[in-house]
Design a protein that fits this description.
By secondary structure, the chain is of the alpha/beta class. Helix 2 (56-66) packs across helix 3 and helix 4 packs parallel to helix 5. Strands 4-5-6-7-9-8 form a six-stranded mixed β-sheet, covered by helices on one side. Strands 3-2-1-12-13 form a five-stranded mixed β-sheet, with no helix packed on it. A two-stranded antiparallel ribbon has the order 10-11. The two termini are 28 Å apart. It contains five helices and 13 strands. The structure holds fe (ii) ion. Fe (ii) ion binds at residues 8, 10, 49, 78, 80, 193, 195.
Length: 276
């Protein structure tokens, strides 16, 4: 069984025609690629920065774009989203809120559980306050034996692309670490935000950050002065991508995928022989 993760869609409207066209074309490419996977994923999680400016019109545009998906889509929020505008358009079973109004929910899909967290806290930084952390703790307590993927828009570890990374002493990182440490059922933390694929470890768990469906961040790991622009490239039109999560009942495994049309290189015409 597989679930696809798309992230950082940054859907917008004709107010921003350049980004609208590019981001929608790339999202369509990703959705086509996901629908062509064998086997077809049973669900899609869209892990935040669903739209670019948090406007209702953008969520309506997203709804229109996703209307012909044959795979159910679950939604999480990122720092470009607006909780109020999102819920106005997308409230319902695919994006529920917790008792405090945060877009947080758990959903059992086949043998696994997906726990969607809300790290939205305004432009370019995440947060996870005590109330949200308490919800996560309670939610993880409810199913300690189900292989679980935790969805967080903001990765809790640095990517090395400094202008996007969290401050190392941010209190929300400590709160999250306290909740996640020792949770044997958590197999992976699936993130977005960095618009680039990378992996690491947080609180003993694999962090898997997926590439964006919209444009990617340039892989530049050098020091940057946040107050002195130096003309460096920061975004690049590398191909759109997504992640694929596979669950065999016990393990969760992630694949990072590029969308697009690629010619087959070799086909299976003779029996396989195991390579020792
Ligand atoms: Fe983003």
């Amino acid at each position: 069984m597989t679930i696809a993760q798309i992230t950082d869609l940054h859907v917008t409207t004709e107010k921003d025609p350049l980004n609208q066209q590019r981001n929608e074309d790339r999202l369509r490419q990703v959705m086509k690629s996901i629908h062509g996977l064998r086997p077809r994923p049973v669900a899609i999680i869209a892990s935040g920065d669903l739209v670019d400016r948090g406007e209702i019109e953008e969520y309506l545009e997203l709804q229109r774009l996703m209307a012909d998906s044959e795979i159910p889509i679950y939604y999480a929020l990122g720092n470009h989203d607006s909780r109020e505008a999102f819920l106005e358009v997308f409230g319902g079973p695919f994006a529920r809120t917790d008792d405090n109004g945060f877009v947080q929910y758990a959903v059992d899909i086949g043998p696994m559980r997906m726990v969607v967290c809300d790290t939205l806290e305004g432009p370019n930084h995440g947060d996870y306050d005590e109330a949200r952390a308490a919800w996560l703790s309670k939610t993880l307590d409810e199913a300690p034996d189900r292989p679980t993927a935790v969805i967080l828009h903001h990765p809790p570890i640095p990517s090395g692309i400094q202008w996007m990374d969290p401050e190392p002493d941010s209190p929300w990182l400590g709160r999250l670490e306290a909740v996640l440490t020792g949770r044997q059922q958590v197999k992976v933390l699936m993130c977005g935000h960095i618009h680039r694929a990378f992996n690491g470890v947080f609180a003993g768990h694999l962090v898997s950050a997926a590439p964006a469906t919209s444009i990617q961040l340039t892989l530049d790991l050098t020091e940057v002065d946040m107050h002195v622009p130096d003309g460096r490239e920061i975004l690049v039109e590398e191909p759109p991508g997504y992640a694929l999560l596979m669950c065999d009942g016990t393990n969760l495994t992630t694949h990072l995928c590029l969308a697009g049309e690629y010619a087959p290189a070799v086909t299976y015409n003779f029996p396989f022989r195991k390579l020792a």
